[in-house]
């Protein structure tokens, strides 16, 4: 074995674009560049003392009044990294906020974070599609190699969500309170097929209840792909 073979394949070292501040639209949800005009809706769904629990694992304090919300949203709307998006439903309501951060075009790495979703979005098709849109932009539109997501190790819902979406553990330090997940570009095709199968209207009954879980859809897609590869090798 040569030294080159031992070291493995060369990594694509091209630089990818910085994410554009442009809308991302799906069948159930849209992600729109955050602006001050969205602040009243955001405060309605994320602000006030009754929504303080949504901010428990974030470094930002809850929006306890509209003025505070306006000031923060104005600052966020001007930020390049993190790059914030409003999560907007088909009725035009702003139900949450998400961002790209630690954006590194040179090394083709990017993170999804600052995710704050109102209670009405929890465990819904809309929330799942919002993450799917972020991943599609990073991998398909821009060509990033790795998308990461950090979560407080005590934030059980966020950890469960990351694993459900197909992200894999990469670090869990005993002296730190952050768990890190990631998806790489070689894992993305199988993860993407799982998302597409899960989000398809045939996967939901008349009451909107899922027929198969996202994990089942992803595993089924992986098995189908392996079968196609195997039968292709035999033909």
UniProtKB/TrEMBL annotation:
Domain N-acetyltransferase: 51-166
Single Gene Ontology MF annotation: protein-N-terminal-alanine acetyltransferase activity
Domain of life where this protein originates: Eukaryota
Pfam families listed in its UniProt record: Acetyltransf_3 (PF13302)
Name used for this protein in its record: N-acetyltransferase domain-containing protein
Organism in which the protein naturally occurs: Fusarium euwallaceae
């Amino acid at each position: 074995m040569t030294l080159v073979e031992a070291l493995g394949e060369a990594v694509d070292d091209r630089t990818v674009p910085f994410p554009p501040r442009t809308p991302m639209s799906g069948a159930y949800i849209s992600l729109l560049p955050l602006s001050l005009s969205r602040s009243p809706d955001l405060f309605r769904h994320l602000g006030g003392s009754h929504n303080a629990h949504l901010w428990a694992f974030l470094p930002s304090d809850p929006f306890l009044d509209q003025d505070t919300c306006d000031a923060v949203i104005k600052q966020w709307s001007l930020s390049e990294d993190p790059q914030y998006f409003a999560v907007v439903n088909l009725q035009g309501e702003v139900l949450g906020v998400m961002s790209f951060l630690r954006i590194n075009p040179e090394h083709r790495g990017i993170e999804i974070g600052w995710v704050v979703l109102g209670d009405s979005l929890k465990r819904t098709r809309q929330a799942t599609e919002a993450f799917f849109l972020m991943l599609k932009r990073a991998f398909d539109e821009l060509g990033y190699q790795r998308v990461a997501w950090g979560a407080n190790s005590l934030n059980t819902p966020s950890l469960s969500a990351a694993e459900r979406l197909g992200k894999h553990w990469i670090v869990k330090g005993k002296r730190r309170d952050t768990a890190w997940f990631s998806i790489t570009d070689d894992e993305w095709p199988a993860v993407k097929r799982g998302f597409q199968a899960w989000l398809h209207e045939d996967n939901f009954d008349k009451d909107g209840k899922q027929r198969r879980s996202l994990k089942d859809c992803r595993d089924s897609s992986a098995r189908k792909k392996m079968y196609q590869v195997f039968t292709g090798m035999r033909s």
